[in-house]
Amino acid sequence: MMNRRDPRLTFMSRLLSPIVEAQYDYEIFRRIAQHLGFEHRFTEGREAGAWLRHLWECAAEVAARHGFGLPDFDRFRNEGVFAVPDAEEHRRLMRDFVDDPERAPLATESGRITLYNDAIAGFNLADCPGHPAWLPPVESLLDAPEGALHLISGQPDTRLHAQNDLGSEALDDKIKGREPLLMHPAAASARGLAEGDVVRLSNARGACLAGLRLSEDIRPDCIALATGAWFDPQIVRGERLEVHGNPNVLTIDKGCSELSQGNVAHTALAYADPWDGPLPALSIDRPPRILEGTG
Questions:
Q1: Distance between CA atoms of 218 and 201, rounded to whole angstroms?
Q2: What value, to the nearest 5°, has the Cα angle with vertex 107 and ends 101 and 113?
Q3: Tens digits of per-residue pLDDT, 196-209?
Q4: Which of 43, 200, 261, 275, CA to CA, is 20 to 30 A from 75?
């Protein structure tokens, strides 16, 4: 319940109560579970506060195995932060296993490093065999239409995911108010694009606007648009267009495998074209329209 490499644990206190009919995540999923008929299996008899205490107790057990103790939950909540002892200590990955594989086995079927997993193989998943393998991506440059570019959508340097997207560091990095799009100069020249232009990115799933930043550090057949720009979909020229630079409208809405269901943010093709119209005004800095409940 705790990563030993986290230097600090922070209690996130609530700033305000839910507005109108809005609810926090746990209550939303509790109601869904109730509607589907397995509320108790989801809650295990605990409300949200009880779950926090339970998870803290689990974290305390992990801490004890690492040789230090955690304060009780109430003290942690009141103080707001706990500094993990020796968090900056240099550690060698899997040191205990390397020193003594018999005493400190890995959590695998054999206790050793494995290249094949019987349990995963037994799932009989077409896209996740029991061993490392290269599988053709569902979308890639291998069979890309002419003009398509491979879209990479990694983490931004100026924020964590979408957090603080209106902060000064993130805003200073934007181009004409849009999320920066990284493109090789040769790819830009072939499309009539120049540094600082606003680009319309599109594929069969959607379209968005981004500000162009040129770099020779990226391949000419690839582009990079970081995740996390606050979502701003609008109707522009009769089409649904995300005007701030959020790549979610371009990426594939499926898990990367049946087993992991991880994000597929690096498996997408998109076209890049100059935006020749007036720039739509952003709406992300305005509050949403709140509907009063009907009871």
A1: 17
A2: 60
A3: 999 999 999 999 99
A4: 43
CA 11 from centroid of its chain's CA atoms? 21
Domain ranges of the chain: 8-83, 92-135, 141-274
Quickly tell me which residue has 């920066």 as its tokens: 180
Query: Which residues fall within 8 angstroms of residue 153, CB to CB, at 6 or more apart?
Result: 224, 225, 226, 227, 247, 250, 251, 265, 266, 268
Q: Coil, strand or helix: which one is 279?
A: coil
- For the entire predicted model, the pTM comes to 0.75
Q: For the residues of 65-76, what is the DSSP string, one character each?
A: HTT--PPPHHHH
Report the C-alpha gap between 205 and 207 in whole angstroms: 7
Query: For residues 241 and 205, what is the distance between their CA atoms, to the nearest angstrom?
Result: 11
Q: Output the CATH code of domain 141-274.
A: 2.40.40.20
Report the phi/psi class of residue 67: left, alpha or beta, with left for phi > 0 and alpha for psi in -120 to 50.
Answer: left
174: DSSP letter? -
Q: At what angle do helices 48-65 and 25-36 cross, to 10 degrees?
A: 110
Q: Is the pLDDT of residue 172 over 90?
A: yes
